[in-house]
């Protein structure tokens, strides 16, 4: 269902981007110099759709970085839980090895409550 919804949204957007790129193939000048309109120092001349695709790419990168930083607390919690689970698995393996070497049955379930 999610794949269908993504396709439903992104396919028309992709078609619009391609149509926009084909319709806007002429060169435009992008200037980063607000002080000299007649002879700008920082200019880039390229087809308009390149600027559009660059803006989309920058937006995707900024959104990805923002999402990645916002989810940092969840990644940290997952690392802590993974270490804790590894410690519990090591302890269980040690207890199992001790139980096997002494040939004592491992206590589980209701037997464990009665043994305590």
TrEMBL record:
Residues 44-91 form the Lipopolysaccharide assembly protein A domain. The chain crosses the membrane at residues 49-69. One of its GO terms (cellular component) is plasma membrane. Residues 83-116 are annotated as: Disordered. The keyword Cell membrane applies. Keywords: Cell membrane, Membrane, Transmembrane, Transmembrane helix. The keyword Ribonucleoprotein does not apply. Residues 83-97 have a biased composition (Basic and acidic residues). It comes from the Bacteria. It holds the Pfam family LapA_dom. InterPro entries: LapA_dom. This is DUF1049 domain-containing protein. It comes from Stappia sediminis.
